[in-house]
Amino acid sequence: MSVLAQDVSRLKYVSGAREEALRRLGIESVGDLLFHIPRRYLDFSHAYTIESAPLGQVCTIAATVDRVVEKRPRPRMSVTEVHLVDETGVLQVAFFKQPWIARDIAAGDRLAVMGKVEFAYGFKQMSSPHYEKLDAGAAGSIMPVHPVGEGISQAWMRRIVSGALECAQTFSDPLPARLRAHRKLMSASRALRAIHFPSSMGERDLARRRLAYEEVLLLQLALRLRNDANLLDVAPVSHRRGEHVEALLAALPFALSDEQRQAADEILDDMARPDRIMNRLLLGDVGTGKTAVALVAVASAADSGSQACIMAPTSVLAQQYAATSAPLLEQVGVTSALLTGATPAAEREQILERLRAGRLDVLFGTHAVLADDVVFNRLSFVVIDEQHRFGVGQRNALRAKGPGADLLVMSATPIPRTLALSVYGDLETSIIRHRPVPGAGVTTRVLDEANRDIAYGAIRDALAAGHRAYVVCPLVAESDSSEELEDVPGIERDDEGRPAAGPRLHAVETEVEHLTHVFPEAHVAMLHGRMTAREKDRVIDEFRTGSIDILVSTTVVEVGVDVSAATVMVIENGERFGLATLHQLRGRVGRGSDAGTCFVMAPASGRKRISPALERLRALEQTSDGFALAELDLRLRHEGEILGLRQHGGVTLRFVDLDADTDLIEAAHADAVELLRSAPRLDSTATRPVRYCVIDKYGDVFKEVSGG
After folding, report:
1. Measured between alpha carbons, how far is 240 from 271 in angstroms, rounded to an integer?
2. Three-class SS state of 650
3. Could you give the CA distance from residue 316 to residue 564 in angstroms, rounded to a whole number?
4. What is the separation of C-alpha 368 from the centre of its chain, rounded to a whole number of angstroms?
5. Are 61 and 112 in contact (CB under 8 A)?
């Protein structure tokens, strides 16, 4: 057993209450402890004396506690004043509503405080700074501040970590030496020592970079092994570009744009390769024409005498694909059918019989295509739309119906390249950034409750012009409260992943009743995920044909609902959604020849600091570039929230900064590809330590490969 795998109780100082405290923090082994990294550092190499600390700047000051005074200026308001002194002066520090500090700090303690220095009433002051009690001899060094809990102090955590590092000493590095040398990375043992007790902040940054690189590399390897490695012994299908492809290109109502043509060429080139099965991600903003590109690839499968399957996350989207694509495919001699949970039994059996016999070229569908009795004659090409709404197991289950089938994953959610590499590291990427047919476009306005009449006026004008409107709510029913948001991607969340607190949440059922009174001349209807597939299809059809004027919906309309007559959208509780979701929603209007307007309702900001949610909404007003918005969303929010990865098996990266570490992620991606090229199962002498790390972190993907 390696030192890192040993139980934490074997370390010096770990027993009794301290052992229990560590286990409450999720620390069970020595490795867990060493990867329990500091959340911040007190840099005494740049500490100020009280006299030299500049006003208006955040500074670190080390001084001695002279006295602690508790005050209560008014009921339910407590202030703990701590007077610090050094050889140059006095610093007054005030802690508000933190009475326990008076019990934690005593006269004579050495204290480090970090905060903004102000001046008032003749003294330099700080309000509620970060503080740490100092060990003897701490001045002149960098002090780590670890996450701790009841039963263990910062001082004890530092002692225990120091003991663990001494116990571990120099352990085997999982990364091959040539790779570390090529990327100029420090060893794992040095990185862990430097991340806890750096000699400088520069060394701390190098240590984080080393750990971040390893984190991304292991993720890339796990992703590729779970997919590519399962195909190692499967012969690829070498597709051809023939008469069906050329006929489809001629039948399209528009010529492919340069970006569409490049994406189509990349896909067709991959599909034609006899030595490798295609794994490709097609990223394209709303309205960029991904479907047309996918149909070119579908035609290539037909040219090769085989079948294709296009799987969408909702029946609405699957029906949309079938309705727009089937006439084009039929025009070029390619047969197709739609299979969803709502397909009548007799029709379903007929579709399955044609599929088994090879008389059906293309199957559009939802999760229904994964059923055991859905058997293809020769499936060679799989398209999965909105991949983040499916699990890896579902993707592989569909591919298993056609061994060697090429895979094209599509997403209308703009994703920063670093996030795409991290989440879809096993896929090559094609991107379409611009709409081939610009359309009338959408204007976005953020309104508070006082200006709601502007949004309602726009709906009234749209209805008078024969157009239609959406109203989007975060809840189905008011009785659901915020718990209904637990499984909704894009919802604003607190630090623990729960839906954030805020103003009253609008619900679809209540809003339908309200809008029926506001617009008595209009037909108002609802659409949400609790309805059956047949009910949803009926509502969409009625909205498309004009029988429904105002559609009140949850985010189920985010993708796939294409109603060119819809020109107004009102999004309630807009502050609760992420930019990716809001951008997708507003893409439902302005799709035809008439311009669209999207009104995002949000609380007034008042005089307080603008929240990240409202900052996102302001950005939404200023740009229609989905990729620019995705980059901003990445900077403001956690990567897992952007795509709803909490719900769909996504990973959380601890060391990597997806906004700043672009070069690191690119490097790890390239290195993962090269490692698997030289050792497909990581079973060479140089790569075996990496293999064990992948297993330890992501499970034994190699058993999945061998079927064991």
Report:
1. 8
2. coil
3. 16
4. 26
5. yes
Task: Tell me if residue 705 falls in helix, strand or coil.
Answer: helix
Residues paired with residue 265 on neighbouring β-strands, in sequence order = none
Beta-carbon count within 10 A of 467 CB: 21
Helix 533-545 with 315-331: angle, nearest 10 deg: 60
Residues 6+ apart with CB under 8 A from 576: 474, 485, 491, 492, 499, 500, 502, 505, 613
Per-residue pLDDT of 83-110, as tens digits, reads: 999 999 999 999 998 888 898 899 999 9
Q: Tokens standing for 334? A: 């390619």
Quick one: which H or E segment has residue 81? Answer: strand 77-86
Q: Is pTM, for the whole model, over 0.85?
A: no
Beta pairing class for 110-116 and 58-74: antiparallel
The Cα-based distances of 90 to 49, 101, 105, 131, 494 in angstroms read 10, 19, 17, 16, 38
Strand order of the β-sheet with 89-96 is 118-120, 123-127, 89-96, 77-86, 58-74, 110-116, 130-133
Q: Are 626 and 583 in contact (CB under 8 A)?
A: yes
Torsion of CA 345, 349, 352, 358, to 10 degrees: -150
Task: Return the sign of the alpha-carbon dihedral for residues 660, 428, 555, 567.
Answer: positive
pLDDT in tens, 647-674: 333 445 788 877 778 888 889 988 998 9
**Kind plus residue range of the DSSP H or E element containing 334:** none
